[in-house]
Amino acid sequence: MIIQNKTIWTPDNSYLLEYHARIECGEIIVGRELWQELENLKQDIISDAYIYNTDDALLRMNFMENCVRLTKSPFYNKPMVLMLWQKAFIEVVYSFKMADSGFDRFQDILLLIARKNTKSETCSALGLTELVTGPDGADLVCSSNDDNQASIIYDAIDTMRLMIDPESRDTWRNQKCIRCFITNSRCFKLSDRTRNKEGRNIDFAILDESHEMTNNVIAKSIKQSQSLKDNPKFFNITTEGFVNDGFLDDELRKFRAVLHGEDTGIAAERMLPWLYTQDSEAEIWQDESTWQKSNPTLGIVKKWDYLRMQVDLARRSKADRMFVLAKDFNIKVSNSQQWLMEEDFVYPATYDLEDFRGCFALGAVDLSETTDLTCAKILLMRKDDKTKYIHTQYFIPESKLEKADDKAFGAKYSEWARAGHVTICEGNENDLSIVADWFYKLYQDYGIRIIKCGYDQRFAKDFLQRMDFYGFDYEMVYQNKLTLSNAMKLVEADLKDQLVNYNENPVDRWCLGNASMEIDSLGNVMAVKINNQAQRRIDGAVTLIILYEIFRRYRTTLYNKL
What is the largest CA-CA distance in the chain? Predict the structure, then answer.
C-alpha cells in the first residue's frame, strides 16, 4: 500500500519490524542496547530523511539462501538458512536510503556478538554475495589484525565460491585475490602484515575480531580508501576482548554515543551499532534465559550444554571467568580487578620447617636488580598430603627500604625485614648471588635438597654462576602467558581449596593482593599488577606461579622422593 508516496511497512513485510515485534512480546530476548537501536530504527523507517526500500536487501538474502552453502561442521555443505536476526540485520544495512541522494545510509557497521554465533559464516556469505551480486568492478577486503585471522573470512568466501562454481567458470582465485568474472569484482586479504595498505580503492570491507587491535591503522587505511565511493560498507564484526584502550574500546564509545543520541553528527547518521550485549554480569549467574541477549543463535547453532559448561568453569576460576564473560557474553573484565578475593588466600595455615628436615623440594625465583623485590621459594610436600608447603625469602636493596610510593600501597619492608621475611642487600642493587646462598643455607640448616629450581632469564647471570658453584640444578621458565597460564590456574584452584600453606607470610599476602591477570584471545593468562601500578609488587605471586610450573614439570620426581 502506498500513502503519500511512502510504503506502509508492517511485521508481515519487514524482517526488522517482525524482529522488533517478537522481542516486544517476549518471544525473543535481547539486551537493552540492541532494543534501543531497534526502537531508533523503527522510528527512522517513517522519517522523511530516509527512503526504506528492501529490494537490495532481499536480493542479497535470496542469493544467500538459494546459492550459498555452509563451510563449517556440523552444517558443512548444507544450504544457508538465515535466522530472523540475520534477516533483520541485513535488511537494515541495505534498506535505509538517504532521501536527498538515494545512496545507502549505513556505511560503518559494528556487529558485536558472542563467539559461536555464526558471525564469521554470516559475513563470509555476505562477502561472497557482494562479490557476485554487488556493483560491478568493486574491490572487497577481508581484514584483521593478524594474517591468520584475516584468512578465516577470506578462505570461507573461497570455499563457498567453489561450492557454487566448482569448475571456476565464473570465479577464480589466484595468489593475490578472488575474482568474479560476472561483475569483474575482486576480493583481497588485508592484515597488519600486508605491505602498502594505502592506495587501494575499497567498496566493501569486513574487519574481523577487532578486539585484538591496539590501534586504528588498518581501519583508517580502509576507510580512507572508501572516500570516493557512493555506497561503501565497512563491517566491524567482533566479540569483546582483553586489550585495554584499544581500537574496539574507542569504536564502542563512538557507536554507543550514536545509539544513545549523544552524537547526532553527519558521520553518526551513517553508523549502525548492532550490539548483542548483556545488561549486567549478575544476570548471567542468576538467570540463564538472559544468555540469549549476547547469543542470538542459542539453542539453534550454539548449544545450551556447551554454554552451561563454560559458565560452570567461570564460577570456579577467575581466568575462565574473564575469558567466558568476554567471549561468550561480551562483558569485558579489565586488569584493574584483583586476581583473587581476600578470602581465597587469607586463611589460617602454618607449619614448622623443622618437620621437613632432610626432604626434597622444588625451587623458584623471580629476580630483580633494583626496583622490584627479588623472591625465592621452595615447595615441599608430605606423603598422602595434597597440601603444598611454601617457604619464602624476599630480598630488597637498602636504598629502596623506605620507598614512599610502595608504602602508600601497603609495603612494610622494615617491619618485614625485622620479622625475617625480607633480606636487605647493601647499596642500590640486589646481590643475586646471595639468593643462591639462601638455597644452600636451607641444605646446611635443614638438609633440604633442591631437585630443580625455576628461573626467568632476566638478571640471572650472577645467580646461575653461584647455583653452578653449589651444584644446584635449574631450568628456565619464560614469563609469558603460554608458559605460565596453566600454572596460574592451578595456583588459584589450590589457594581456593586451601591447599597452599605459605606459613601466613605477610609479604606473600601483600603480593597476592596486588595481582591481577592479563588474558589473551585463547584464554591464556599471566599475572600483572593491578592497573599496571608499579608500586604494587607482585613478585611473590609471580614466583609462586613459576614454582607451580616447575611442580607441573617435575611433580612425579618429587612424589617419588616423598
Answer: 97
Cα distance between residue 93 and residue 87, in whole Å: 10
CB within 8 Å of 484: residues ≥ 6 apart? 477, 478, 525, 526, 527, 545, 546, 549
Closest CA relative to residue 511, chosen from 535, 483, 480? 535
The total of other beta-carbon atoms located within 10 Å of residue 462's CB is 17
112 touches 276 (CB < 8 A):
yes
DSSP 8-class letter at 561: T
Residues 225 and 199: their CA atoms lie apart, in Å, by: 7
Whether omega before 166 lies within 30 degrees of 0, making that bond cis, reads no
Scanning the structure block, which residue is given the C-alpha cell 542470538? 296
Torsion of Cα atoms, 87 then 90 then 91 then 96, to 10°: 160
Which of helix, strand or coil describes residue 507?
helix
Q: Summarize the chain as % helix, strand, coil (round to 5).
A: 45, 20, 40
Indicate if 342-560 has the same CATH topology as 106-282+289-293. no
Q: Tens of pLDDT along 374-409?
A: 999 999 999 999 999 999 999 998 877 766 557 778
Domain layout of the chain by residue ranges? 106-282+289-293, 342-560
Residue with cell 550514536: 258
pTM of the model: 0.83
Render 41-101 in DSSP notation, one character per residue. Answer: HHHHHT-TTEEE--HHHHHHHHHHHHT-B--STTSTTPBP---HHHHHHHHHHHHEEETTT
106-282+289-293 has which CATH code?
3.40.50.300
Beta bridge partners of 172: 179
CB atoms within 10 A of CB 309: 12
Tell me which residue of 213, 225, 205, 278 sits closest to 250, measured CA to CA. Answer: 213
Report the range of poorest mean pLDDT among 104-108, 228-232, 503-507.
Answer: 228-232
Cell numbers standing for residue 241: 576482548
342-560: in CATH 3.30.420.240 = yes
Give DSSP secondary structure letters for 113-172. Answer: --TTSSHHHHHHHHHHHHHHHS-TT-EEEEEESSHHHHHHHHHHHHHHHHHH-TT-SSEE
C-alpha cell at 499: 591447599
> What is the predicted pLDDT for the residue at 141?
96
Question: Which amino acid makes up residue 359?
Answer: C
Contact 547, 484 (CB under 8 A): no
